Amino acid sequence: MAQGGPSARRSAGTETAVDVLLRWARIRRRSSAQDIADFRGGQPLQVVGFTKSIGGAVMTSIGRGKKIARTRSGFLRCALGEAPVWTDRTSGKKSVPLRPPFALKPVDGKVSMAPKFERYELSTADGTYDLIVPKKDAELMRYVFGRSEAEKRDEAGRG
Questions:
Q1: Looking at the record's lineage, which domain of life comes first (predicted)?
Q2: How far, in Å, are 55, 89, 121, 124, 142 from residue 32 at the CA level?
Q3: pTM of the predicted model, to two decimals?
């Protein structure tokens, strides 16, 4: 990621194969509450996710001249005092900064083939996007995108 400052660590819901093995061995990983405390303390966090719309839709042909928007995987980098940045895993690692004001709204319905993920509608100054993130990171996402501008100023003044 191009931003300066400390490198981002993975959020509680962003699990690797090693994290799964550690969980099986009953070794705990961080919780969403710890992620929020770390975020408030200035630690940048990286949240895995999926989107069809952030950075523009990538259309895929499904035959007979029809095309649909393809779901892309990537990471959302969240750091206190910085705009959140979405980075695609593919498509040349394209990064898109998200500009406030933010509104995060849960969308009903399950995420197909991903039972541990939740779907949201994220409204920004540049438009409304779909965002799919791990259920374990829902509290963190509500904290990052749900605070008012006054709360952000107060928090920055204390830090």
A1: Bacteria
A2: 27, 23, 20, 23, 11
A3: 0.78
Domain boundaries, the chain: 9-158
**pLDDT of residue 41 exceeding 90:** yes
What gap in Å lies between CA 92 and CA 87, rounded to an integer?
Answer: 9
Q: How far is CA 77 from the centre of its chain?
A: 7
Class of domain 9-158: mainly beta
The pair of structure tokens assigned to 121 is: 């509608």
Nearest to 12 by CA among 60, 50, 46: 46
* CB distance 84 to 5 below 8 Å: no
State residue 1's pLDDT score.
Answer: 44
Show contacts of 107-114: CB within 8 Å, 24+ apart: 111/50, 114/50
pLDDT one-digit tens code per residue, 16-37: 777 778 877 877 777 889 999 9
Question: pLDDT band at residue 158, thresholds of 50, 70 and 90?
Answer: low
What angle separates helix 32-40 from helix 138-146, to the nearest 10 degrees?
Answer: 30
Residues 6+ apart with CB under 8 A from 147: 155
